[in-house]
Amino acid sequence: MQLLILFITGLAAGLLSGMFGVGGGVIIVPALVFFFGMTQQTASATSLVALLLPVGILGVYEYYQSGKISTDNIWFGLVIALGLFAGAFFGARLAIELSSDLLRRMFAVFLVLVAIRLWN
Question: Which of 27, 36, 77, 81 has the least CB density, counted as fewest CB within 10 Å?
């Protein structure tokens, strides 16, 4: 049952990632906290493990084939990936120093702020 929940979580994250560009923080992390009782730090780290592989390559291919993104967009994404590389390191170092409760609350505030910004 645990493997099925993990697979469904990944499937939902993949679908939403393909549609909206979200997945790890919005789907995977909350699912790991709620369904598996992980701390915020453990859930974030587990989400990063899932994202280590080029899991979005098929989605990128579909968008490219349909003409929705160009080679320039791919280069933009690769430059963003360089920032993610460094940001994930420093973000993990910071998250390790914070309490799980504080980190969870900060994450909730972040999601609310993003929702408010997208609503307007």
Answer: 81
Contacts for 105-109: CB closer than 8 Å, 24+ residues apart? 107/25, 107/29, 107/40
pLDDT digits (tens, 9 = 90+) for 50-100: 887 778 898 899 999 999 989 999 898 888 888 888 888 998 999 999 999
76 vs 65: CA distance, rounded Å: 17
Q: What is the DSSP string of the chain?
A: -HHHHHHHHHHHHHHHHHHHS--IIIIIHHHHHHHH---HHHHHHHHHHHHSS-TTHHHHHHHHHTTSS-HHHHHHHHHHHHHHHHHHHHHHHHHHHS-HHHHHHHHHHHHHHHHHHHH-
Q: How many domains does the chain have?
A: 1
Query: Number of C-alpha atoms within 13 angstroms, CB side, residue 84?
Result: 10
* Domain that residue 46 falls in: 2-119
pTM beyond 0.90: the answer is no
